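quick one if you have a minute, typing this from the bus. below you get a single protein, a line of residues and a line of whole numbers that encode the local backbone shape. could you go over both lines and see whether the tokens make sense for that sequence. anything you notice is useful, everything is just below.
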Amino acid sequence: MENVVTAAAQPPGFWESRSVLVTGATGLVGSWLIKDLLAQRAHVIALVHAPNPQSEFYRSGDYARCSVVVGDLNDYWMLERSINKYAVDTVFHLAAQAIVGAAQTSPLQTFEANIRGTYNLLEACRVHAAVVKHIVVASSDKAYGAQPQLPYTEDMPLQGRNPYDVSKSCTDLLAQSYFHSYALPVVIARFGNIYGGGDLNWNRIVPGTIRSLYKRQRPLIRSDGTFLRDYVHIHDVCHAYLTLAEHCARPAVVGQAFNFSPERAVSVLELVAAIQELMGCADIKPQVLNTAVGEIHSQYLSADKARSILSWQPQRTLHAGLRETIAWYRAYLAEHQC
């Protein structure tokens, strides 16, 4: 039987009154992570590129309970001032240009946001290392690039080739560099495809499919439908981020990268079929476009390291997560008629 190292228990109220900077606050992960932090009485400093009233962060009213900083990650001095002004203890770096297709057609913007934005933030944290004690950087399974064997494990080289993949490889390596060179208290989170209510990028497979089926339209599949991915629910993602930060000071955690995954890869066609079943729309057949460019066919992760060192495991099966997600979108679409 595998030996499991149980993560040390954290004291009650770990987040209470803690000053926490979240970049990418209007994104899917940022919006839900901030909910969890506010529920645990953290003081959240939310960095947004531009206010988006459709984001869950604004729609829920959570913005009114945070210190909101409007700015661009490419503005180093804004980042340095914000960390200094709010005496930031913990940083969750989630902001990124996260669309593979957009990166393929506009690599410069992706490199500026994902690479320059990351080293600006890490440098500001280094300058204020006396106060910044925990830094969690969002990487991705895309950082691994194409590998001869799957699932991805944390000891594999980072070898992105397409623009988005390269930007995530660089994000990851920059975080590692600041740990090894300056002992910055960084940990790295690598996820596959994240889904859940609140993602209003309709080009993504989960929200796009749900909206199409809700309207009794054929969902669109950009690839040939056979691409393999793992899909992790947003609440399991937030739990992973909080767990990483809470255990950042442990020698077995700081400076390390961790994969988080349900460890069940499914094809795009299987995913769409599951959504069809849950929505009672098996009669509406998807339209397979087979036009995807710059995407690796099969990508999925081993979460053995997170399970062993952090005692993390997902709490939702794919069907349970999709059921919850569909309910969110039904309510949203009924309200907005979009």
